[in-house]
Amino acid sequence: MLGYLFKRLVSAALLLVAVSFLVFALLDVVPGDVAHTLVGDLASAEQLAAVRHELGLDQPLLLRYLRFAEGAVLRGDLGASVVSGRPVVELLRERFGATLQLALVSLALALVVGLLAGLTAAARAGGYVDLAVMAGTTLGESLPSFWVALLLIQFFALKLSWLPVFGAGSLRHLVLPALALALPAIALIARLVRSCLLDVMTADFVRTAHAKGLSQLLVWRDHIVRNAILPVITLLGLYLGHLLGGAFIIETVFAWPGLGRLVVQAIFDRDFPVVVGAVLLIALIYQVLNIVVDLAHAWLDPRVGHEAI
Amino acid sequence: MALNAEQRASRSLRGARRLPAAAAGADAPRARRRAGPRPNLLLGGGLVGLLILAALLAPLLTSYAPEQIQPAVRLQPPSLAHPFGTDAFGRDLCSRVLYGARIALQIAILSVLLAAVPGIWLGLLAGYHRGWGEQILSRVMDAWLAFPGMLLAIVMVARLGPSLQTTVIALGVVGIPSFYRLARGGAISARHALYVEAARALGLGHTRILLRHMLPNLASPLIVLLTLRMGTMLLAAGGLSFIGLGAQPPLPEWGALLASGRDYLDSAWWLAFFPGLAFTLSVMGFNLLGDGLRDALAPDTGTGT
């Protein structure tokens, strides 16, 4: 187990190095580079060169990457924003809280609703409830979240004026973005819970459990749910990663001051130190969640051994 | 093995959840009893057919050009002359949505092909030849998958500048690993199949065996993934356009239309409503068609349960 964990950590670290270098290199030779953006179009060639020198842009890529990596690893320093001049780490810390809050609330919402819907559908498989849930999941998976966001704004914020259109600061600001983010997750979770339950419910060991006279409760608790829960946990872990690192669109629509909006804004501003820093943070979160999910698997399912990956 | 399939099914949120072998058996043990026409296939095929028709017949279905500005009819609600209303420039929204279908279809087809062709080819090669080449390739693809896809796409957009072309390229690149994994898995299980051995015994070249013998036999799950991916690509491209990182105005891409409708939510509801509806129906069409094809093309997954 420890050896497995160690292997995973090493490969995660390698991946982060690869990703950081890739992103660093990708964003390096931007048409109209940062120095140009800073001094403006009217600057002379000397001014441009001076700014480039000041930013270290006149040095080779590999050297700059190594210096960046050294700062990141040894001092936790990811450089400074080109636009505001503030340290990237500080910006990330500021924004991460908002993203985490939104992600956790929408994940909890999706889990409760999705679990309930999936359970009811599986318990009454083939019935009207099941049909309705399946239709709902099909719709939920096809609705673009940004359209849902607009519809929510239109109805709850503009027409009924119950909730603010955008921004952050109070619980009321949290409702609409959390709903918009939760909706596709609800569909995914409900469908997965239903299909896993149906799979397990018809398995031989469940029939055996029934046959040897166990009560419904025990069969469900010890046999069905225990076996059906694994893929759901995987999905939850990965979806949390998706919410923490992929909520660009919803955060942008609702002007939610999180990581996603930071990245989008930084791309518009050509503020590449911020982009690189945020991408690294998100990749790190993904890796950590991946490892946690795999460990949870190994812990819950003794069949998963070290050779699994 | 079953566990592995489950993991594969749920590992990637970008559609791989529906890798055919994994999800099919679980999804439908009861629905399968229903014989006769398959509603998923019919409805999905119908919706995708509608999208194709709209794209092909756009010039015939509307008498306005999508970029035709008519200041006299700014922000008109839906009427007989303008079934979906008009926008802030007096452009006919119905025409823009119909021409948007062309863009949607282009995005879906091109980005999926960009992902599928290299992904499937590399996957077939890796699964057929095995060896260290496969090891390295698979590691790279795993790393690729372990990284949030939209983020990768956004970084590429940042590098290349926001446009429809960039979006399609970025989404294609992001989509390669899932095709790779599916094709590789199929090739590994098929490399010792009798028909492959027979082809080899006849002295056929590797390329010919891969393309003429293996690929047709592995086609059904790949076709299912292709179809499902068209829906996810459409969603992703629309999302990028919506936040300004994809197709740029005045292109009538649906995500961009939704973005411009955003400013008129309380005064001109139709601007965001109709593009959103077209969007949803198209994505749903691809999703249902993919599900339906999976059930139709892989009968073996159903009969066992």
Which descriptors would you attach to this protein?
heterodimer, A: 309 residues, mainly alpha, MetI-like fold, 2 domains, 0% strand, B: 305 residues, 71% helix, elongated, disordered C terminus
How would you sum up this structure, described in words?
The complex is a heterodimer of chains A (309) and B (305). Chain A has 309 residues and is mostly helical. Chain A has 13 helices and no strands. In chain A, helix 5 (88-123) crosses helix 8, helix 5 (88-123) packs antiparallel against helix 10 and helix 9 runs antiparallel to helix 10. The longest helix of chain A is centred in the middle third of the chain and has 36 residues, at 88-123. Chain A is flat. The model of chain A has no long low-confidence stretch (mean pLDDT 83). Chain B has a domain at 101-245 and 270-301: MetI-like fold. Chain B is built from 13 helices and no strands. Chain B has helices at 2-11, 20-27, 39-61, 93-129, 131-145, 149-160, 164-190, 194-201, 206-217, 219-242, 254-261, 270-297, 300-303.
